[in-house]
């Protein structure tokens, strides 16, 4: 099956297009959005010219899995998830194209913060730690090794840059400046850590270490806070296989780290107009499916089959 990299639904109005998802408004329901995940892949903030077949559906079904599970484990947690149903009014051919990759969500005001939680030291956190002994300005124990678990998970937010710009790491104490008020910032930090802890425990029982992840939160007009966007997918997180975990080295991962590593090897990091070669596409697709199976207990093919 070919990758689906552009999504147009003539019966619905496209509201916005992100690096991976397209957002459509529903004519009869101003409070709901249709969130459609394409097969596009972005790495180092650049979208590759080709996609990973089925990636959009894998991400949507993984997010839906968490949106159903997390509120059971975190009392009072609100999420933007409404349903996986394709809305009435979408024609049969379009409905077929977006089945499993679309999600109806509550339309909300997204907070201007990338709510990142890290359980293990890697990536930009490892770079900062090596240079300064800190992570997002937070003092860390001496002598940590690459890939080591933090004594407890840490909240390390970054700014949510406009398209074309890069997010900047910030100290958690400054997150409220992006959000607007301290009370909301504290709530977001508490929720992000609670969700990470619950998800990390769940995933670890299934052989996946969630090294770090990024959440987005949103609010309604009454000020209630919701978990929004995609959640705990291989795109928004670093997933490591638990059985291959080894301290002091880069871990093999279930996520797009595979593509990132290839880009670095080829010196194509952050370059525009790059196509991922077929073997890397296939390997990445296998990784996404493997993560799907481990997290949900079902093969992607079985979960995606019409019921
Ligand atoms: P951006 O478009 O901000 O650069 P991105 O490339 O990660 O981010 P996608 O993931 O492709 O974007 O698209 C999802 C977009 O939808 C994001 O901008 C996200 O903030 C926004 N979003 C998520 N949940 C909601 C919601 N409930 N209501 C409105 N917008 C939302
Ligand atoms: Mg996104």
TrEMBL record:
Pathway(s) this gene product operates in, as recorded in its UniProt entry: Purine metabolism; IMP biosynthesis via de novo pathway; 5-amino-1-(5-phospho-D-ribosyl)imidazole-4-carboxamide from 5-amino-1-(5-phospho-D-ribosyl)imidazole-4-carboxylate: step 1/2
Listed Pfam families: SAICAR_synt
Group of enzyme by EC: ligase
Magnesium in keyword set: no
E.C. numbers: 6.3.2.6
Provenance organism: Epichloe bromicola
Lineage: Eukaryota, Fungi, Dikarya, Ascomycota, Pezizomycotina
Protein name stated in the entry: Phosphoribosylaminoimidazole-succinocarboxamide synthase
CDD domains according to UniProt: SAICAR_synt_Sc
InterPro entries, A to Z: SAICAR_synt/ADE2_N, SAICAR_synth, SAICAR_synthetase_CS
Keyword vocabulary terms for this entry: ATP-binding, Ligase, Nucleotide-binding, Purine biosynthesis
Keyword Transferase attributed: no
Family: Belongs to the SAICAR synthetase family.
Source superkingdom: Eukaryota
HAMAP family linked: SAICAR_synth
Stretches assigned to the SAICAR synthetase/ADE2 N-terminal domain: 15-272
